[in-house]
Amino acid sequence: MKRLGILLVFTKLFSCLLLGRAWHRSIKTKILNKYKLRIKLKKIKINSYKKFTIENIYIKDVKANRVHLLKSLSCCINVKSFLVGRINFTFIEANGLEIIFFKKNNSTSNLTFSPKGKGKFKSRIISKGISIFGYLPGNINFNGIKISFNDDEFFMIPFLRIENGLLHNRVSSMYNDSAYKENMLKVSNFVNTSDDSLKNHYPVSIFKGHSKIEIQFIEIVLNKKEVDSQELQLDFNFTNATIESSFISDDKLENQCINGIINFKFNDGEIIVDESSIVNLNQIPFSFFIEIELSEIDFVSIGVLLDEIEVTKVLEAFPSFMFNSSIANYLIGSISFALSLKFQLNYALNYIFDIQVSHDLKLASSDCLIDFKYLNAPFIHNILEDEQVIKTIELNKNNINFSSLDGVSEILKSTIITTEDGNFFSHKGFDKKSIGFAIVSNIAHRKFVRGASTITMQVVRNLFLNHKKTILRKFEEVIITWSLEEIYCIPKLRLFEIYLNIIEFGPNIYGIAEASEFYFSKSVKNLTLVECLIISYIIPRPKFFLDALINQSPRLLKNLKLYIDNYSQEMLRKGLIKQTEIDDIPLVIAFSKHLGTINLE
To answer: Can you tell me the distance from the alpha carbon of 513 to that of 403, in angstroms, rounded to the nearest whole number?
Structure first.
């Protein structure tokens, strides 16, 4: 790429000539075909025998759907290096750099994963990048950098300068334009070509969307193990970090520390972070490896290992839990786990996943703040919204809307188990297959699109937690789920009965009895196959289904028809229904009188 880039600049100088224009077009075509980069240079000025300026640079990364715009780029060349065939710069100045990331049209019919950047990596290019420190000068000046995401978010860097080994910069975002941070980064080794280490000490603030990370101290050391080695070692230490992110936690996380060592290897066709790499998260050590296999079919392998550790240390590393802040005081024992995932880059559903968890956990005392055994008896559950009780559910036979398992038809029970948690009666609260599929689905879409919640986990979320999708809330959900299944041994049938009576089906509609009456004016015993499938369809989307039904949403009609077709076939494969029952599913479905009918034809 470097050679073609030099040729592109050189041929632009002679583009006034017919032969020069043809040569320049040829170089641009080669870059487009090989690297999927469309490049335009408007004008090049020769300022002196060692300085040149390029004006109005346009670079579009076709594959990554990204555009780079640069008003001007001025460079000074080290003449002595140039005469012996090396290009080293003594000074670089760039003005008006803008990088724009455009949205891609996501298709839900296929799960695919496209790595950011140019697509497929080439190990020879990356190995050249190891020695990048030798090409950067001691003086760099960028004025006006803007990075835009999805047309609604951007970062501004008004200036970024390296002067005699010190980096000066200022960063802001559209969500906090007044919060400029002056950062001083000592990077003397960064510009020293005789030492391939990089050591930085500086406070920094990072904004993305409504998330914010402030790190008071950063130390990074990047070492090439030998002069011509294809191996790198990265030592890092982030101390006193404050994290505000609705993805991680509802609360501000303070005094977070993360450090570790990452070992990179670059072989022909492979990029490896080897298994000796380790990251300490608040003093919890995780070993991991990453391997990228570059061939006709590209694969990524990832592994994470937590060696045996006392559970109290794990729990103390996280903020207080919202439900039981003293849970760490009642669990003793050790825990370890190993996770491995291998998937195809351009088709994430081609994957292999495994997770193994070992432990000897138990309760240190029976004097817990709450004894979950109460779930085996009748109890009252309050539905909260904005910390206010909006509904009370009595889980006992005196409640006319309570549905005991004996009063629920087998077809409804089979439908909900199939659609929500097919392995409910065989797992112990967690379904390995669902976890693997959720991970690759989220990787494929580069965002959270699918969870791996079992019925037990949904019971925990509805009884004790909330529905916010944060990492720490999920962690607490896992702890309580494990407690219900393995410490208190709440029977599966009882968990399922609770689930059927507390799950939400719409505005102020909770439990299958209320849902059956509201949507079909029927008891739970009399629901047909298609009505059972519709009831199960509502469960993941209770707040949206009713409005979509009333408005006869085309999207609802399409998705519901697909859902009924897919899961009826799944139930047929499991021997839960017969083909004649599928053949009898109507295309015009009648709801209660106040809801009317829908036509899925």
So the answer is: 6
Contacts of 426 (CB under 8 A, 6+ apart): none
Residues recorded for the chain: 601
Q: What pLDDT does residue 557 have?
A: 93
Residue 6: φ, ψ to 5°: -65, -40
Residue 188 within any structural domain of the chain: no
| Inter-residue contact 34 to 48 (CB < 8 Å) | no
What the block records as the tokens of 432 is: 């390995």
> CA 12 to CA 22: how far, in whole Å?
10
The residue type of 225 is K
Q: How far apart (Å, rounded) are the C-alpha atoms in residues 289 and 279?
A: 11
509-538 tens-digit pLDDT? 999 999 999 999 999 999 999 999 999 999
Average pLDDT (191-195) is 38
Kindly state the average pLDDT of the residues 343-353: 85
Strands of the 51-61 sheet, one edge to the other: 37-46, 51-61, 66-77, 89-101, 139-149, 153-163, 166-173, 176-186
Of 29-43, 73-87, 500-514, highest mean pLDDT: 500-514
H or E element at residue 34: helix 18-35
Side-chain half-sphere exposure of 470, counting CA atoms within 13 A: 21
Q: CATH number of the domain that 397 lies in?
A: 1.10.3810.10
50 lies in some domain:
no
Tokens of 126: 């990356």
- Least confident piece of the model among 2-6, 97-101, 188-192: 188-192
Beta strand spans in 78-138 (E): 89-101
SS3 assignment, position 173: strand
pLDDT at 526: 92
| Confidence (pLDDT) at 61 | 83
Please report, as a single letter, which amino acid is at residue 210: H
- Confirm if 537 and 571 have CB atoms less than 8 A apart: no
Alpha-carbon dihedral angle through residues 108, 113, 116, 120, given to the nearest 10 degrees: -140
Q: How far apart are CA 434 and CA 441, in angstroms?
A: 10
pLDDT digits (tens, 9 = 90+) for 533-585: 999 999 999 989 999 999 999 999 999 999 999 999 999 999 999 999 999 99
**How far is 279 from 576, CA to CA, in rounded Å?**
47
Residue 497 located in a structural domain: yes
E-assigned strand segments in 249-315:
253-267, 270-281, 284-293, 299-310
Q: How many domains does the chain have?
A: 2
pLDDT score at 133: 40
Question: Measuring CA to CA, which residue among 49, 61, 56 is closest to residue 71?
Answer: 56
What residue numbers bound the domain in which 463 lies? 374-599
Higher pLDDT, 68 or 195: 68
Instruction: Calculate the CA dihedral of residues 356, 360, 366, 372 and round it to 10 degrees.
Output: 20
Torsion of CA 62, 67, 71, 75, to 10 degrees: -60
* 587 closest CA partner among 557, 559, 546, 566: 557
- Cα(98)–Cα(101) distance, rounded to whole angstroms? 10
Type of residue at 202:
Y
Spacing of C-alpha 351 from chain mean position: 17
| Structural domain includes residue 403 | yes
Residue 233 · residue 250 · CB < 8 Å: no
pLDDT at 191: 34
